Amino acid sequence: MLYGDAVDWWRDGVIYQVYPRSFADSDGDGVGDLKGITSRLDHLAWLGVDAVWSSPITVSPNADWGYDVADYCDVDPSFGTLDDLDELVAEATARGIKVILDIVPNHSSAEHPWFVDARSSRDAVHRDWYVWADGDPPGRADASPPNNWQSAFGGPAWTFDEHTGQWYLHHFVPEQPDLNWWNDGVVAEFDRILRFWFDRGIAGFRIDVAHMIVKDRELRDNPPGDAWADTDLVFFDMDRPELHDVLKHWRTIAEEYDPPRLLLGETYLSGVKRLAGFYGDGDELQLAFNFPFFRAPFQAEVLRELVDEIEVGLPADAWPVWTASNHDHSRLPTRWAQNDAKRTRLAVILLLTLRGTPVLYYGDELGMADTPVTRTQVMDPVGRRYWPVDPGRDIARTPMLWDDGPGRGFTTAPAAWLPFGDAQATNVADERDDPSSVLHLCRRLLALRKAQADLRRGAYEVVAAPDGVWLYRRGDSIVVALNLSAAPQVVELPAAEVLLGTARVEGTTLDGGPTELAPWEGVVLGVAAAPRSG
C-alpha cells in the first residue's frame, strides 16, 4: 500500500462487502462462491478498495443463510473449499487487497455437533455451552417461557426442548441457539477459531451481533420500552458489561499478529454513549458500525447532527466507520436516494468524504437498487414470516449485475438463487464504458482519497450553511458541499479547485463567494485555506 500505516490500514482504507452467494458464480450452479470472488478481484483492484469483507462462508444448513454455523473452521461446500479460500487470500494480497470474514459468536446452528450433543441430555458435555432455563412447558393455558426476551425475528426468544424438558435461548430463528459465553469452553473454542483464520492470513473479522454476545447470567426480564427511543434503558439480553471482557480478550489475540488483525463490530445500538463503549480505551473494537446514521433519513440536518455527536462522543483516538447499505437492509440507492440518480451520486460522495472508514456494499458503486421479489422467490426467513408486510432482506441480496447478457455475467446457469435486478439500468460493463456513471464517480472518489491525505485523516469541521445544505471541511485543504434538497441553494464557498463533483467539471476553479448548488448537487473542493466556522 502506498499510503497510510500498515498497522492501522483500516483508518485510511475503504472496505467492500460481498454477499458471497450473490457476487459471482464460478461453477454454473446459480450460487456465488469463493472462486467467483477471486475471479472478480480485478474489478475491486480497478475500483480501488483496500479490503473485501465477505458474509459467512462457513458450513451452514442455511436456516438463516450462513448465519447459522455448523462448523466454524471449514468452508461450506456451496462456496468451495479451504484451498479456494487460501487462493482468494493469496490473489487478493497480490493486488493489495485484504480479506475480512464474518464470525458469528452469538449463536451456532442447531445442527452444530455442540448443540446436537447439548440437547441429547441435561448431563451432556456441551449442555452448558448454550443457554438453557426452566419454565412452564407449552400446552398449559398459563404456560410461559423463562423470561420476556424477544427474538429479532419476532416472538419469544425461547423454544421448549421436549427431550430434556427445558427451554433454550435463540435471539433469531429457533435453528440458531444462543451460545453461553459464561462457559469457559466456549471462550477457549473461539480463541482457537480466531487463530485458525488469522493464521490463514485473514485480516480481521466483522463480528455478527457484537452487542449481544453475553447475556445476563440471571436471565432477568427486560424493562418495557424501546432501546432506540430511550438510550438510557438497561436491557439484560444486550450491551451487558461483561461482553466487553470478551472483546478485550479478542483484541489481545488480534494484537498477537503483525499487522494486528481488525475487529469490526456489528453494534446495533442507539446512542453514541452505547456505541462509544465498544471502543473501550482503545483495547476493544477498532471499528464499530454506527447504525443510527445508517437508519437515518437522507436529510442534511439529521445526518449532520448524528455525525457531530460521533465526533464529540467517541473516545479521542476512536475511529468512526460509515456505511449506508448491507445484507440486512434496503440498499443505499433505494432507501436514501429513492432510486434517483442524482441523490445516489450525492450519497456516494457523502459516504466517501466523511472522517472515518467507509464500507461499500457490493453494487453501491453502480447505484444498484433493491430488487423486488415475489412470494415464491423469497428465501429469507424474515420474508417468509412477514410477507407481504415485510418482504425480508432478499431485496438487497440479489446477484451482482456484471453485464446485461444472459446470467448477467453472474452465472452460466439458467437462473440464479435469487432473481436479477434491472441490468439495463445498472451493470458493471456498461458503466465502465460511461465516464459519467456512478461507477466512475466512485472510482474517482477512491482515487481522490488516496491522493488527498486530508480526505483520509483530516479533521472534520462543520461550516455554516443554509437549511438542506451540509458544508464541512476535511483538514486544511478540502471543503465538501452537499445540497441534500430538491431546491437550488446559494452557499458561501471559498476560491477553490473542483476536485470532484456531481455537476461540475473537475479541474475548473471557483472564484469564491456566493455559489449556487443545484438540487442534489455535491462538490469536493481543494482550497489553499478553507473557511473556519463561527
General description of the model:
Helices cover 25% and strands 16% of the residues. It has helices at residues 9-12, 34-39, 41-47, 82-94, 113-118, 184-198, 243-254, 272-276, 291-295, 300-313, 332-335, 341-353, 381-386, 428-432, 438-451, 453-457, and strands at 15-18, 51-54, 58-59, 71-75, 98-103, 132-133, 158-161, 166-169, 204-207, 262-265, 287-288, 321-323, 357-361, 460-463, 469-474, 478-483, 489-493, 496-501, 509-510, 513-517, 522-526. The chain has 534 residues and is α/β, with parallel strands linked by helices. It is globular and about 80 Å long. Residues 530-534 have low confidence and may be disordered. The chain has three domains: 9-107 and 183-447, Glycosidases (TIM Barrel, Alpha-Beta Barrel); 108-178, Oligo-1,6-glucosidase, domain 2, CATH 3.90.400.10; 459-526, Immunoglobulin-like (Sandwich), CATH 2.60.40.
